Amino acid sequence: MVLISCAAVAYHFGLIGPRYIVLTTDVAGASVFEKEQFLGTTPLKMKPERLGLGEHTLLFSMQGHADELFTFDVKPNTRIEHSVPLSRSYGKLVVSSVPPNALVTIDQSERGVPTDAIRLAAGSHTIALSLEGFETRLDTVKLSLGVSDTLRSTLTPLPATLAITSEPDQASLIVDGNAIEGYTPIDLRLPHGEHSIQIRKNGFATLDSAINLDPGSLVECNFTLRQVIATPAFGALRVTARPWAEVYLEKLKLGTTEEKLPFEEIKPGNYGIRLVCPGYPSLETTVKIVKDEETLIDHDFTATGSVNITCMDENGKSVYGDIFLDDEATGGTTPSVIESLFIGPHTIKIVADGYEPATEHVIIKKNDSESIALIARSAE
User: Fold this and answer.
1) Strands 21-25 and 80-84: what pairing?
2) Measured between alpha carbons, how far is 185 from 249 in angstroms, rounded to an integer?
3) Dihedral angle over CA of 361, 364, 368, 369, nearest 10
4) 89 close to 121: Cβ distance less than 8 angstroms
């Protein structure tokens, strides 16, 4: 015979003690723990046997909310139903951008252009800053409960597009002193800011212009070129130089490049041209003036190159001598490399004991490196 106590039967069938425990939160989905043991998520319904009689303290946890504790007793013949209010934990974030007035989006929700601190739930947030003409900037911030933080982001400007057309077309371009591959019509991707534009076409006057581009902008420019007006017996000459130059045709001074005008009414033929800029070697060259056409000369005084100098005797033995550049002592000896030489012709002379001076002429080109080997003949 099996004996079962009346109390056990009564408890089993819910006649005494709680039938179940129901726990809820004002925001569903909170995790419920007792002494680090996970019990489930709200709303949570449990049989009392899972906890047992006596005092229990449960922890309710949910991201973006402060943790809450609930302590209660499981007693015989008591039903437990309890709702735990979860209070959100907040921090504050001040958002600014360089340049200012960027549109702020937080966790894919637009917030406009806030001027005051933004109240946000504690935790991680994705901040997007967008401004016309600039790349959208994404940042991640982690806010702590009750803490005020600051996010200051610098936006990267988008390049601008400059669409250039000309009448007539097929004109060449120089932008900020650099020749552009291709001819008009042409679209150029340029950084924002001010740019100098020069449009050239043989038979037409060169046109100079300056334009300021906003970040990410599309600017369309059409330039009408003026045909060079010259008498049937003449041509024209246009000279550009950096930083500037006095222009001499043969021994006649025509003017300076700062005037930015073509020198007209020049009879067709070959002429010696000399460009002079104080502090730089002069340029001497020859041009051909053609009837009814504009001849172009462009020179950069600031451009440099280098030369590698060696010297040997008639038997191929290295000679160590003093180096003179354009009749001025350099202080160096062979072999040697002279850097940052202005472009154009130069005279190299080597003076060594026991040898006749050796002289060689070299023409330095922009951003180029020349090599010369001089032969020193014995002085005996």
Assistant:
1) parallel
2) 35
3) 30
4) yes
Residues 304-375, CATH architecture: Sandwich (2.60)
Q: Which neighbouring-strand residues pair with 324?
A: 329, 349
Domain 160-224 has CATH 2.60.40.1120: yes
Angstrom distance (rounded) from CA 301 to CA 275: 9
CA distance 343 to 285: 13
- Amino acid identity, residue 41? T
Give me Rg for the CA atoms of the chain.
43
What is d(CA 357, CA 362) in angstroms, rounded to the nearest whole number? Answer: 16
- Side-chain half-sphere of 363: how many Cα atoms within 13 Å? 4
d(CA 201, CA 164): 14
Q: What is the pLDDT of residues 111-152, one digit of tens each?
A: 888 878 888 888 899 999 999 999 999 999 998 877 788 999
Q: Report the alpha-carbon distance of residue 263 to residue 257 in Å, rounded.
A: 10
> Of the CATH numbers 3.40.50, 3.30.230, 2.60.40, 1.10.10, which one belongs to the domain with range 6-84?
2.60.40
pLDDT at 63 over 60: yes
